[in-house]
Write a structure and sequence with these properties.
- The protein has a single domain, classed as Yope Regulator, Chain: A.
- The chain is about 35% helix and about 25% strand.
- It is built from 3 helices and 5 strands, in the order αβββαββα.
Amino acid sequence: MRNNLHSALSGYVERNSLHGDSPRTDGAVVISLDNRYRIFARPAPHGDLVFECRLLELPPSSAEADELIELCLMGSWVKMREFAEVPVLSQDQSKIFLQYRVPADATVEEFEGALEQFANSVAEWRRIFRVL
């Protein structure tokens, strides 16, 4: 594994004997869970990590896309007190992702707990959006 990897992610990779593909140019590490979720662990400022997973691709119809974005905003408003995960719109405004920040000083156990919580949240958001 690369030496500049977040220490908890490095520990997780080692603990689970994961052998990732060649390093991505954006520095992200892809974690595949249950063959259902593809979670990107991306470097963030100050040594933090950001988990990111695509929830859905927005339909080409602006009315349908606006409806899904409104649903996302309402869901975020309801969940924000309980959950640290945040839905975001992609830069090209064609997809909705879920993100969660992992502190630089997280332990491997905290990392694993955050990853499990994040995967559960992805499942919940996909249920909300009716994405299987």
